[in-house]
Amino acid sequence: MTPEIWIIDDERTIRDSLSQTLDIEGFHSRAFSNAKDALENLNATFEGVIVSDINMPQMDGMTFLSKALDVDPELSIVMLTGHGDISTAVSAMRQGAYDFLEKPFSTDTLLDVIKRGTDKRQLVMENRELKRQLETQSAPGPRILGNADSVKQLRRTIFYLKDQNGDMLLQGERGTGKELAARFIHDQGTRQDEPFVALKCRQVPEALIAMELFGSEQQAYASFPSYKNSKVAAAGKGTLFLDGIEALSLNVQEKLATLTGSSERPRIIASTRQDLTNSVTQGHFSARLFQNLAETTLIFPPLRDRREDIVTLCQNFVRTTASRFGIAPPKLELEHKEKLLKHPWKGNVRELQAFAERWVLMGEQNLTTENGESNEKEHDSLAERILKVERAILFDALNRHNGMLKEVQIELGLARKTLYAKLKKHHLDKQNFKG
């Protein structure tokens, strides 16, 4: 992905000329006629280079430089200065600018500065990413795994947002990690000592959802509810996660929109599987609530768009499951990897995790149905989970003892008849484990 180059200059001819030059050379440019607009769009996740004129109305380049470095002191900002105005350029460098260009300058000079500035900024972002990975891997709570560019960018944005207090909208298909991200933002952010309260909007009947959110029936339909005995009250100053917010009625959506205008309330993180822009246009979703939530929107890519992560994720889930149950993890051979990459994964990461857990606990022969589709279910019953664990323990013991039933019987403390009955129940044949 080519980093974006911002051009800030009040003269249109200069903006157009620089944009055309950069576009021809393969850069993606974005032009601003004033520094104030650029500053409003700037945050610490910006990966490119900023080229700014010094002499501009409203906000001059030196003021912009100071304010931009407050956003991120390691930005690559190149200042444009007039002929002979070297003292101002030197002052800008001392203040934190990456470099300066004295007008007029050649295309080669411009490109050299841009490339060096881009390399420097990329190194800064890569170092931050490594630091974030170390922090998140060693910290308690959920982790956002993957090496696809879209996931790296998502992880950077999530890490940045964890210390922000605004409401946000998480958009993506089922099983792409929206709730995982919501919990990470809460657990690693400034509200980590406050409650995290989740509500699955699709699972609560429409007649009860207002009371669930806002309290008693009287309060739920009052003009100014007190929210006593409600999800809002339970979340306090923490985080209220609304999974499937599109399932709420318009009346409830409007009450939530009113809530977002209040100061004493939890932060709202909402998730959706839909593009709510269309829902707003069609009158199916509150424009007021959408405006409040969509100011910060995170898009979660489906697994089919990040296939380079499939094998890595599966290996992680296999190791984690095997470690949790104290059994040896199965090995991913080339044929397994090829099958993983061919599968459509309509349930995304959640389906892949369920697949890996079944593989560890039930063995390879129970992974797919006759038509090649996985047997993924949202939730197993307690009895089904116990059976999976029992089979996994038997499978592991047979594997380690090369099918020697006497040794398996001694290790597991089972009577001979009991062991034979369990092997029959789980379709395990000792001959398949002989060395």
TrEMBL record:
CDD domains, per the entry: AAA (cd00009), REC_DctD-like (cd17549)
Modified residues (4-aspartylphosphate): 53
Keywords, ordered alphabetically: ATP-binding, Nucleotide-binding, Phosphoprotein, Transcription, Transcription regulation, Two-component regulatory system
Taxonomy, superkingdom: Bacteria
Keyword Transcription regulation listed: yes
Keyword set includes Transcription: yes
Residues in Sigma-54 factor interaction domain copies: 144-361
GO molecular function: ATP binding; sequence-specific DNA binding
Coiled-coil region(s): none
GO terms classed as biological process: phosphorelay signal transduction system; regulation of DNA-templated transcription
Domain Response regulatory, residue spans: 4-118
PANTHER family from the UniProt entry: C4-DICARBOXYLATE TRANSPORT TRANSCRIPTIONAL REGULATORY PROTEIN DCTD, TRANSCRIPTIONAL REGULATORY PROTEIN
Name of this protein: C4-dicarboxylate transport transcriptional regulatory protein DctD
Gene expressing this chain: dctD_2
